[in-house]
C-alpha cells in the first residue's frame, strides 16, 4: 500500500523559483505566435481570393487576386514587428 505521508516529489525541495532557463520556451512561443499570425493572414487571403473568384456576378480571378493582394499588404502592414521604444 502507498505511503500517503511521503512527499509527492522528492525533488520538490530542490526547486528554486526563477532559476530554470526558459530561452527554448520563449523561442517556441515566439514561433507559435508568428506561425499563427502569418498563417491566419494567408488563410484569410486565400478565402478572399476564392470567394471573389467564384462569385456568381462580377467575380473572376483578377478581381479576386487584387482583393487578396490588398488584404495581404494591409495585413503585412498591421501585423509586422514594430520597433521597440527604449
TrEMBL record:
Entry's Gene3D superfamilies? Bacterial aa3 type cytochrome c oxidase subunit IV
Give the highest taxon in the source lineage: Bacteria
Tagged with keyword DNA repair: no
Domain Cytochrome c oxidase subunit IV bacterial aa3 type, first and last residues per copy: 18-54
State the UniProt keywords alphabetically. Membrane, Transmembrane, Transmembrane helix
Transmembrane found in the keyword field: yes
| Membrane-spanning ranges | 38-55, 61-79
Any one Pfam family here would be: COX4_pro_2
Q: What is this protein called?
A: Aa3-type cytochrome c oxidase subunit IV
> What is the source species?
Brevundimonas balnearis
